[in-house]
């Protein structure tokens, strides 16, 4: 990529003196550390995150007198855009648009964690703060492909139809916007619909214990017979 200061120097040369479009441009970049926001400098507009620092730079002015930063806010619901420009006696830069987004916290997954084999289940992924541009799912860390049994609705809701034991595992909902990404995992356990294992094991244990007591009692009787 072209280094931006070099590009800025080049711009007036390309446009030539007296060109109408020669308003110097403001550049800006987000300073590290800042979630996963793009830290490269941008000309004209920049998307950054709440809580991060942004450095605005205007081309060096050779003129004298007052140098002013001007600031303009977009008063529109759902848009936190603001505009900046630098003004001197000689010239004024173009407006620079700064857009600030909320970084995404781990999403919340709603659903039941214990499911009967053979039934259907769904997991719903919600973003609590901010707005996600993309949602996607993983199972045990691997991308989860859609199939006739695994279906997604707007990527936020995951349906698993005719659940089988092999569907048990960790389901992760991952979310991303221009400045951050985050994810949450959910453990899904599938059990057999006819739950016969536990009663059978319990019955075996109880019968074994009774048999043991009976044998011990018999031995005690025998040893007492020989006492006499
Ligand atoms: C996920 O969100 C938590 C809490 O808001 C934050 O501390 C963490 O850094 C985020 N993870 C990523 C990868 O940005
Ligand atoms: C939906 O998920 C797929 C992969 O599962 C991903 O490639 C795609 O970008 C996602 N789209 C949105 C809008 O979240």
Give a description of the structure.
With 228 residues, the chain is an alpha+beta fold. The chain is built from two helices and 16 strands. The strands form four sheets. Strands 9-16-15-11-12 form a five-stranded mixed β-sheet, with no helix packed on it. It has a four-stranded mixed β-sheet with strand order 3-7-6-5, with no helix packed on it. It has a four-stranded antiparallel β-sheet with strand order 8-10-14-13, with no helix packed on it. β15 and β16 form a beta hairpin. The longest helix is centred in the last third of the chain and has 31 residues. The site of one 2-acetamido-2-deoxy-beta-D-glucopyranose (NAG) has 6 residues, from β16. One 2-acetamido-2-deoxy-beta-D-glucopyranose binds next to β11.
Quick structural summary:
By secondary structure, the chain is α+β, with helices and mostly antiparallel strands.
Which SSEs are present, and which pair or pack?
Elements (H helix, E strand, L loop, with lengths): L3 H12 L11 E5 L10 E2 L1 E5 L3 E5 L10 E6 L8 E6 L8 E6 L6 E3 L3 E3 L4 E6 L7 E6 L2 E2 L6 E4 L3 E4 L8 E9 L2 E12 L5 H31 L1
Parallel strand pairs: 3-7, 9-16
Antiparallel strand pairs: 1-2, 1-4, 5-6, 6-7, 8-10, 10-14, 11-12, 11-15, 13-14, 15-16
The protein binds 2-acetamido-2-deoxy-beta-D-glucopyranose (NAG) (2 copies).
The biggest sheet, with number of strands, parallel, antiparallel or mixed sense and barrel status, is: 5 strands, mixed
The N- and C-terminal alpha carbons lie at a distance of: 105 Å
Integer-rounded radius of gyration: 34 Å
Element order, helices and strands? HEEEEEEEEEEEEEEEEH
**Distinct ligand kinds:** 2-acetamido-2-deoxy-beta-D-glucopyranose
Total helical elements: 2
Read across the widest sheet, the strand sequence of neighbours is: 9-16-15-11-12
Indicate the structural class: alpha+beta
Share in helix: 10-25%
Shape type: elongated
User: Residue ranges: pLDDT <50 for 5 or more in a row?
Assistant: 1-20
Mean pLDDT, all residues: 83
Q: Could you tell me the number of beta strands? A: 16
Q: Which percent band covers the strand fraction?
A: 35-45%
């Amino acid at each position: 990529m072209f280094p931006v200061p070099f590009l800025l120097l080049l711009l007036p040369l390309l446009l030539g003196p007296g060109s109408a479009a020669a308003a110097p441009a403001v550049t800006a970049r987000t300073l590290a550390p800042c979630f996963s926001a793009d830290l490269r400098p941008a000309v004209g507009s920049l998307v950054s995150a709440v809580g991060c620092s942004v450095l605005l730079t205007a081309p060096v002015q050779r003129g004298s007198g007052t140098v002013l930063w001007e600031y303009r806010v977009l008063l529109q619901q759902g848009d936190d855009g603001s505009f900046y420009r630098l003004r001197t006696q000689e010239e004024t830069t173009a407006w620079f648009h700064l857009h600030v987004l909320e970084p995404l916290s781990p999403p919340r997954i709603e659903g039941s964690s214990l499911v009967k084999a053979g039934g259907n289940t769904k997991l719903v992924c919600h973003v609590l703060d901010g707005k996600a541009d993309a949602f996607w799912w993983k199972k045990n860390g691997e991308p989860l492909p859609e199939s006739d049994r695994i279906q997604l609705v707007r990527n936020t809701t995951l349906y698993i139809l005719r659940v089988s034991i092999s569907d048990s595992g960790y389901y992760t909902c991952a979310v991303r916007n221009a400045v951050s990404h985050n994810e949450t995992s959910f453990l899904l356990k599938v059990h057999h619909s006819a739950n016969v294992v536990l009663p059978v094991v319990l019955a075996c244990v109880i019968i074994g214990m009774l048999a043991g007591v009976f044998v011990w009692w018999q031995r005690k009787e025998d040893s007492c017979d020989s006492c006499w």
